[in-house]
Design a protein that fits this description.
By secondary structure, the chain is mainly alpha-helical. The protein has helices at 2-13, 30-46, 66-92, 100-120, 127-145, 151-172, and strands at residues 22-23, 26-27. It has two domains: 2-46, no CATH class; 66-180, no CATH class. It has a two-stranded antiparallel sheet. Helix 1 (2-13) packs antiparallel against helix 2 (30-46).
Length: 181
């Protein structure tokens, strides 16, 4: 909410060409302030709607399954190894041979594949690598289509979508520590 207020103030204080948020052919710098303000109000309004107050839940002691911990470690090592190989290839091969979009898609598929392997083995997925995978995949497709990419905007959209879907993920306990699977 404070970000929305700050953006709104900057919109009116700075010269018109300093704050840019283009919608079509028009500069509408007040739009992000309005959107962030609405999101902030919704988050504040729903913050206390968890239900009636009850005694805090006592979490059961989780005994890690050594096989799942070892398998998760192996899957992580494979996933991050593939990521580094892909990143190295991106640095060596010029854009004229392979478009940047294909590299981003490859990295996204590696990260999402890692979480698919976890899911198939009944190991909790990592929210971090899922987020990276989705971000890379969407960015890669946008780069291939030829649209001007603004990774910051895409990052905010995906982060917002994740926050909206987070209660659904929490209810199904899809993300978390592998040891708690």
């Amino acid at each position: 909410m404070t970000n929305a207020v700050l953006i709104a103030i900057l919109t009116f204080v700075l010269p018109a060409d300093e704050m840019m948020f283009t919608v079509g052919n028009s500069n509408l710098p007040i739009v992000p302030a309005i959107i962030l303000g609405i999101v902030g109000i919704v988050l504040l309004a729903t913050a206390g709607s968890r239900g009636k107050a009850v005694a805090p839940d006592v979490k059961p002691v989780v005994t890690p399954d050594p096989e799942k911990v070892a398998l998760n470690k192996q899957l992580e090592t494979i996933g991050w190894g593939c990521f580094l190989v892909m990143l190295g290839g991106f640095m060596f091969i010029p854009d004229t041979v392979v478009s940047k979009g294909f590299w981003s898609i490859g990295i996204g598929l590696i990260m999402l594949g890692l979480n698919l392997a976890r899911y198939m083995n009944k190991i909790r997925m990592s929210g971090f690598t899922t987020f990276l995978g989705i971000l890379s995949l969407i960015t890669g497709v946008i780069q291939l289509i030829g649209l001007v990419t603004d990774e910051g905007a895409i990052l905010l959209i995906i982060l917002g979508a994740y926050l909206i879907a987070k209660p659904w993920f929490d209810k199904r306990q899809l993300f978390g520590k592998a040891e708690e699977s």
